[in-house]
Amino acid sequence: MFNLILFGPPGAGKGTQAIKIAEKFGWIHVSTGDILRAEVNQGTPLGLKVKAVMEAGVLVSDELLIEIMESVFRKHGSAGGFVLDGFPRTLKQAQELDQMLTKLNTNVSLVLSLEVNEEELVKRLLKRAQEQGRKDDTEEVIKNRLVQYHQHTKPLVDYYREKNLLKEVFGVGSIDDIFNELCNAIKVSKG
Ligand code: B4P
Is 182 a domain residue? Predict the structure, then answer.
């Protein structure tokens, strides 16, 4: 089982690239953002709980995310691989992920970190706001999401670097060029 984490700040291109990678390698794409948005759109009890949190650009609680991921692994436990897009986002989530994978006799294979400067991130997310009208893509909420990223998620870079799992990839340029870079890194890691 190959377990890839696509890592990066909001707007770095995780979702965009995760779909392409999952398709190419036949892996399961898990976007915790998409899972949560689907719950919100369907008005489920979980969705009602997280709606305001997401619209404010704040991270949803670790407990809920861990529950969601446990059910993903229960459902797809025998898959050939996973592309995790947007998870883990805190140290607690990263530690729990390690435990979940250990139970499946596997571990994190590679963390690809998309490096994109803040000006470009804000530009992309404001463009998406015009195109898709996502409630968390307003200028103020984007700022908040970036603060959350720096406070809670960025420290994971050190966590995975120490484990020798981190590879940084320049995330500005054409989607296809970045995709090729990511695929090359995966091929090297797969051996
Ligand atoms: P996500 O849905 O994960 O949102 P995101 O970080 O903005 O990433 P996204 O995948 O959408 O952006 P992408 O870079 O693909 O999370 C939303 C919210 O859910 C969080 O704020 C939080 O509240 C909650 N949440 C999710 N997971 C959680 C967790 N684990 N713990 C706690 N809370 C959690 O794309 C951005 C835009 O850039 C797109 O429009 C795309 O078309 C464009 N783009 C991509 N590549 C490009 C390129 N190379 N050039 C130009 N544009 C590009």
Answer: no
pTM: predicted TM-score of the whole model, two decimal places: 0.95
Is residue 77 pLDDT above 90, yes or no? no
Residue 23 within any structural domain of the chain: yes
Report CA(11)–ligand 1 centroid distance (Å). Answer: 5
Q: Which residues are catalytic?
A: 14, 89, 128, 134, 145
Give every CB contact of residue 43 below 8 A, 6+ residues apart in sequence: none
33 lines ligand 1 (CB under 6 A): yes
pLDDT of residue 149 exceeding 90, the answer is yes
CB atoms within 10 A of CB 11: 26
Supply the pLDDT for residue 8. 98
Which ligand 1 atom is nearest residue 93's CA? 30
Q: Is the CB of 152 under 6 A from ligand 1?
A: no
Query: How many domains, in total, are found in the chain?
Result: 1
Domain that holds residue 140: 2-177
Q: Whose CA is nearest to atom 44 of ligand 1?
A: 13
In a domain, residue 188? The reply is: no
Across-strand partners of 3? 82
pLDDT over 70, % of the chain: 100
Edge-first strand order for the sheet with 110-115 is 28-31, 81-85, 2-7, 110-115, 166-170
Predicted pLDDT of residue 7: 97
Q: Domain of 27: which CATH number?
A: 3.40.50.300
pLDDT, tens digit (0-9, with 9 covering 90-100), for 91-100: 999 999 999 9
